[in-house]
Design goal:
mainly beta, 7-stranded mixed beta sheet, 4-stranded antiparallel beta sheet
């Protein structure tokens, strides 16, 4: 099982980025996939997830109405569209897949929001 995140970078406040999480050895359409983020010295924070059940989604309060999680089953890839970015969104973003009670993490992609 492998998850590869991409799409991070430097963006100005108010800007947008789209992160991708490409999965292999893991079927995203039948399992829950989440995005987390972590700032050095702080605990990893759940940002959003998309459920295997009807594609239901969840968002953390800090990103609600600004971020959108989606998936492309044909590409076996999950996305995180991030709009109206704020400096406090600066973090390493990780995707995680859960299957049969086991969690699988990607290596992370850095997002920096700064002017």
């Amino acid at each position: 099982v492998q998850f590869v995140e991409s799409g991070g970078g430097l963006v100005q406040p108010g800007g947008s980025l789209r992160l991708s999480c490409a999965a292999s050895g893991f079927t995203i359409s039948t399992n829950t996939v989440s995005w987390y983020r972590q700032v050095p010295g702080k605990e990893r924070e759940l940002v959003a997830f998309i459920s295997s059940v009807d594609g239901n989604t969840y968002y953390g309060d800090s990103v609600k109405d600004r971020f959108t999680i989606s998936r492309d089953n044909a590409k076996n890839t999950v996305y995180l569209q991030m709009n109206s970015l704020k400096p406090e969104d600066t973090a390493v973003y990780y995707c995680k897949g859960n299957r049969w009670g086991v969690g699988y993490w990607g290596q992370g992609t850095m997002v920096t929001v700064s002017s």
